[in-house]
Request: fold
Amino acid sequence: MAGLNPPSAPPAHPLLAVLLPFAGGYFVSYLFRTVNAVIAPNLVADFGLQPWELGLLTSAYFATFALFQIPLGLLLDRFGPRRVNASLLLIAAAGAALFALSGGFPGLFLGRALIGLGVSACLMSSIKAFVLWFPLKRLPALTGAIMFSGGLGALSATAPVEAALALTSWRGVFLGLAALVLAVSAVVFLVVPKGGAAPRRESVAEQLQGLAGIFRSRRFWQVSSVAMITQSTFMSIQGLWAGPWMRDVAALDRGGVAERLLLLALSTMTGALLFGNAASWLAGRGVMPVQVLKAGLAAAMLAQLAIIAGPGPWSGWAWLCYGLFISSGTLAYSVLSQHFPAHLAGRANTAHNLLVFVCAFVSQWAIGAIIYLWPVVDGHYHAEGYRVAFGSFLALQAGAWLWFVVDHARAGRPVAARET
Reply:
């Protein structure tokens, strides 16, 4: 089986030739992730979907996305990010077309599952490409730029999609998205340069041994554990429970909730750029990204503590700070890329990504299960349920952060120092 293409000369404009094509992929990935929130009423009206069917349909994206992370790491390290991402995006385009043309739940479910599989490489292939084409010190800033493009995709799945529905049906929207994904796939394949680093030819057994070594690495668990619980908790809260909290605890109307959620998304996008560039700038002055990761996550936990203590005049600012500082968790991908050799970077980051998504599944259900321990009155959940649920996951984050900080200090050298 062939390995990576032989290395070629560095592109004249690497930001244009490498960053922008992969940013386009992550843009459509996030757009697909959140678009069902807008078209859900249309799907319910057309197919009479029950709530559990709508939830199952939406979760199909996350299921295939998570399940493919381990084989994805093997593929990225063997064939490179250009070919893997471009190929998988073709599957996403086919899934979007199937979703658009489906006549019932089975076709919708399969289409959504294929979309999740097809976009599963968008973030990981970006990071792998950055490892191949850019100096390691630029990884945090580049990863921040990719996260920002994902935020733009999430924003595009709101008002722009709603506006498109006034011009066409949800089927037309998904056919348009299928065409967009085909275009992004072509750009990735044709614009991103081949190669980027001398190939390291490994057998499947050797690749699996490398993956096992990652899971045996204490340094991997140091970084992944704290980033996993903090990031997955935020995904669960932002994706579902922030809105009900603002309605039930802060007593905001629908317009106020929508405004706060938009500001939360914007603060998260801003944080991705801020922390990525700050980490790269500080790395040139001797401050390793792992130190920025520690500080950012500590600030995010303080913001959560303020939210749990609410509501109050500070609540809006607490949510903004939460979105801003939680973005530091994305530095974990850069830290892992810098710690492991380049030929293991894809497997290390997909292993971490798998843990994040699995933990997100668990945390979103668990937060709801805790909230439901209190009585529901007129469709509103009890404020104490939110406090206990959010507080429980804050305690888990604090425990993981303390182990990370103490164990890392005992190790006596930066996690971000790459070992070969």
